[in-house]
Amino acid sequence: RLDEFQEALSYYNRVVEEYPHSQSAPxxxxxxxxxxxxxxxxxxxxxxxxxxxxxxxxxxxxxxAYYWVGQSLAKLGRSAEALEAFGKVTKEAGKFYVAASIAxxxxxxxxxxxxxxxETLTKLLETTAGDEELEAIAHFETAKLYQKNKxxxxxxxxxxxxxxxxxxxxxxxxxxFGRGASYHAxxxxxxxxxxxxxxxxxHPSVQLRLKTQFAMGLLFSAVxxxxxxxxxxxxxxxxxxxxxxxxxxxxxxxxxxxxSPAKAIPIYEEIxxxxxxxxxxxxxLTRLANVYYxxxxxxxxxxxxxxxxxxxxxxxxxxxxxxxxxxCYFDTKDFQKAIELYRVITEKYPATxxxxxxxxxxxxxxxxxxxxxxxxGSVEAFTRFYKLYPDNPSAPAAYxxxxxxxxxxxxxxxxxxxxxxxxxxxxxxxxxxxxRYRQGESLFNKKLYQSAMAVFDQLLKEYPTCxxxxxxxxxxxxxxxxxxxxxxxxxxxxxxxxxxxxxIYAPNSQFSLGDYFxxxxxxxxxxxxxxxxxxxxxxxxxxxxxxxxxxxLAEINAYNLYHRGELLFDKGNYNRxxxxxxSVMVRFPESExxxxxxxxxxxxxxxxxxxxxxxxxxSEVIAKxxxxxxxxxxxxxxxxxxxxxxxxx
Length: 649
Prior knowledge:
Elements: H1 5-18, H2 24-38, H3 42-55, H4 62-75, H5 79-87, H6 95-110, H7 114-128, H8 134-148, H9 152-165, H10 169-185, H11 189-200, H12 206-222, H13 226-237, H14 242-259, H15 261-274, H16 278-294, H17 298-311, H18 315-331, H19 335-348, H20 355-369, H21 374-388, H22 395-408, H23 412-425, H24 432-445, H25 449-462, H26 469-482, H27 486-499, H28 505-519, H29 523-536, H30 543-570, H31 574-587, H32 593-607, H33 611-625, H34 632-645
């Protein structure tokens, strides 16, 4: 009790050695084990507890020894053996049975075996049911364990059982506080406040009162009742518990910071002068650094964070300090320096909570550098991130950025693989639909058109209403074109124009329809499609090209129609030839073939011996085109025939 452990050990050892058969001998071994355990000498403690089991197996302290054997083994990382030891403590051990069961369940929780924990707790509650002393303790300790392991709903149930069925004054206030804290964690603030109020009105210990007042202050702050929060936190800040007082002061500053970060700086700096422990200094400096960062006072933030790192209170605080510094350099676009500091975290403090964020930021930093060389660094960082932290909320983004890096490098197959994995593994993420599309685009760029089409079809099936439907349809159409299946692309282009007229692909699809019909020499349909393009998208950059093609098509269509008239003329079918030539003039009045059509109309009438109509057409040619040297041959032809027709009836 006087902390003179060496002297105590010597006395306990004398009893064990000189009076091994006395009732005190096993008790002394327990004491020796506890001294070693308290000093972190778990191997030595284990040896002492095993002596009890080997030498005094029938002692009433054997159950206690099994409990401490389990605790020592757990500290040594020998979980399976620890669980076996806890399991040997039977109900006859009373409170140690409860303690061993709780310790075993906690170990199951810590090692990720939740089912084992639940089975252990169920057995504990079943075996203590009806035992007036142990049942209440079992429910109370079970509630505390659930709360410790963030199983807040189960904690509320067990605390409620204690409160309603076992209203023992020795832990009633603690049960109300525990339930209130669990409600608090579940954001059920009214119920949490009611439980905290019960504790404060039920004569709590000084320590529990301060603890409850602090929790109440946090609750008030969370629900926006800042004035009440300030009032009660000031009471805690003046209290006897130094750690709670320090935390209350920090919370008071947080409230001031919420109102105005700039106002919080002098308060932090003042408190820093009176901070006694490294822990308190690190907390204040960390908060101060965060305020500096919010205010974009980057130099001050870097200095404050450096002091936190120098204090070196814990890996978490050191890593967080480096992270803040790195963020300052990131925000000021000194990406190389930012990468150096983020890398310190990932290499020296990989187990810290901030390490995944640091690795992600390395990828972003390389991305922001924006050079061809930096793409490799970005891809490497993001690839490492999604492999190390597949369940992290940022894992889908890491896949996305890694895939884009590969895409930018032209590594199409690798990019397609990563985009595919993202869409398969995280189908509900914000990146899923685009990733499926980019997977197809990567295969398209690799000229694997059949594979690309299959992916575009998959996208249309998986995400039929997503924003990439028009992209997928358009790309699918081009896969068909490059696969020599152009005719199958036509209905897809029409669908895009009809359903997605506001899409960037609608004008290109309409233009492509014109190109398709032009390519298969269906000039009339090509004309229809290009005209529709100009009508639907009059401001598009390709309108000039469409008008040029329409001019060419007009000549082509005029020639084709004119040539039909010539064939009819040559066969002596003058009436039909005249109708065709007239159609050329009506449909293509600006065409080069309009004048020839008019000349041949005159010739057809002349051949029919309808000389009046012939003279009229020849005269019309001379009137319209006589002054244009380009048509001198046609004009001379008409003049000569008019001369001949002067004598005709």
